[in-house]
Amino acid sequence: MSDAPLISVRGEAVLEAEPEIARLSVHVQSQESDRRAALDRLTERNQRCLDLVKSYGEAVERLETGGLSITPVLKYRRREGDVRAYRGTVWIKITVSDFGVLGELVARLGDLERTFVDGPQWDLRRDSGVYREAARQAAHEAVERARRYADALGSELVGLVELSDEGLGRDQGGPVTLAAAYGGAPGAAAADEPEPIDLEPATQIVRAAVEARFTVSPPDLGSR
């Protein structure tokens, strides 16, 4: 085991970056007195929603169905078997990479009958270069801090003993929530398309922190 003196430091970097993607969560619903009718209506509305999203082509990076349910709605909460209606719900997850169409897409989704839109949730891709740059800057800060300590002691950095990652994190902007009106005749469509909603991307805050230990040359404490 080396008897060389050690210096332990922490390096941190905080970067601001524009988001790369926006996530939308869409719930499409139906409610009918008959179970099969509720399912058929839900199928129609789900397809209408999917067709709308797919019409945006490559601007939509990912389109997924998160789940589907058909649930009986009871007339009285404490009495089993007394069904008033059946409610169907489909959960659709959308990832948008072209923010130029995002406001229009959100408005058109919110205009669909019995549709609830939650979002956008701004984010960076998992492999974004912003994370790598934050890690690089955090490691650089650790080296510079250790070098300043060594200089204050009349020492020089000799070697790296350990470098550990404290993890990465980010802050996100809050979502905008839209709900379409639940009234109106089934299948009714608005005469005109809704106006696009003006959405401002939320700046992403990326943090990286590392802990490092360095060996240093013997300090010259007498001259300090």
Strand/helix succession: EEHEEHEHEEE
Instruction: Count up the domains.
Output: 2
Structural class: alpha+beta
Q: Ranges with pLDDT <50 over ≥5 residues?
A: 167-190
- SS element count, helices: 3
* Intertermini distance: 28 Å
* Main sheet makeup: 5 strands, antiparallel
Number of strands: 8
CATH homology superfamily name of the largest domain? Protein of unknown function (DUF541), domain 2
How much strand? 35-45%
Strand order of the largest sheet: 3-4-2-5-7
Instruction: Please state the second-level CATH architecture of the largest domain.
Output: 2-Layer Sandwich
Apparent shape: elongated
Broad CATH class of the largest domain = Alpha Beta
Report the C-alpha radius of gyration, rounded.
28 Å
Descriptive report:
- This protein is of the alpha+beta class and 224 residues long.
- The chain has two domains: 1-19 and 125-176 and 200-223, Protein of unknown function (DUF541), domain 1 (Translation Initiation Factor IF3, 2-Layer Sandwich), CATH 3.30.110.170; 21-123, Protein of unknown function (DUF541), domain 2 (Alpha-Beta Plaits, 2-Layer Sandwich), CATH 3.30.70.
- 24% of the residues lie in helices and 42% in strands.
- It contains three helices and eight strands.
- A hairpin with an 8-residue loop joins strand 3 (60-74) and strand 4.
- The longest helix has 24 residues, at 129-152.
